[in-house]
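Fig. S4 source data, part A: sequence.
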Amino acid sequence: MKFFLLLFASLFFLPVLYARPVELRVTDYGWLTSFQPLKDSLDFYLQGEENKLNADQPILNPSRVNSGTANASVLASKGLGTDYVDDPKKFSISLGLGAAIDNEKNVAIKDQISGAAGASSVTLGYRLDPKLMGYVNLGTFMHKEIIPGDFDIAGDIDSTNLGVHLRYDLVEKKGSEWFGWGGLKLHTGYEYNSNRVTLSTKLDEPLELDTGGSGVLSGRLVGTPEYEVRTETHSLPLELSTSFLFLKVMSFYTGFGTDFNFGRSVGKGNLKGDVTGLACSSGICVSETVLPQVEARANFNSRSTVRSVTYRVFGGFQLDLPLGLHAYVQAEQMLGTRVIGASSGLKYTF
């Protein structure tokens, strides 16, 4: 959750490089209208508060966050919708979880990664002929929590993925159960991934303006910042894999893949707030009834697309258990990038 917390921090320190920064705007100067020096003092003070809000921005490039999230979304579900080792007689059922991150740091967010995504899947496999397997997978994941800190942030994460895959045995396996080669397998199919992260909180910060000896003007900046990153990607994978069996109970596999992708990641957010309770705590303005009115506004919208063609290598380990059960872990690397992924799951073949 640290990544998403830092992503959301932009709502308080600077709304992003390509979006409009936080603006504190006077809508009515009230009793200050007739006193130009005091109006100037208020404008100068609000400009200083804007600068504070727009300083030390953790997000360096919002579009890079979106592209990193989109590329991570493509990789998160890889390996969940097919099988690189097992040869069931007729059916297979598997449950799996996957995650991926764009591990290039300090380019999208200060000192942090550039994107993240997750996936889950229930996969059904069916033998279509002696050399061909077909797979259908579907998964969804939902998570809500309150992230404690300087601001209590409500986080809502949803992910959905689905796909259809085919696996063809190009070269048959050789050897024995004690030591064998799994041959060469060709994989292809279609994958859809959707990830949505929604974050919201309440902003309540004190403001205080010394009007230069005439009085002290005090109030609070109150707002309801919200931010959502929604990623939808489609991928057509083409993979070549091989595997090795050792001692009847363990297998290692590896492979190379090319993915043809399309999709995008869109970030939407805003800060709608006002300076409330603005009043004179001392000085000549105490008796005045028409007080200045100030509002806070900002938008945080940005978007980016996924890489259209990506290349990756992957490898994994599988433990073959009794009763047709198999447990596996897998790691992936998108070549030419720092996008990495991992998945794990449990399979039953019969």
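Fig. S4 source data, part B ends here. Residues 146 and 252 are 40 Å apart (CA to CA).
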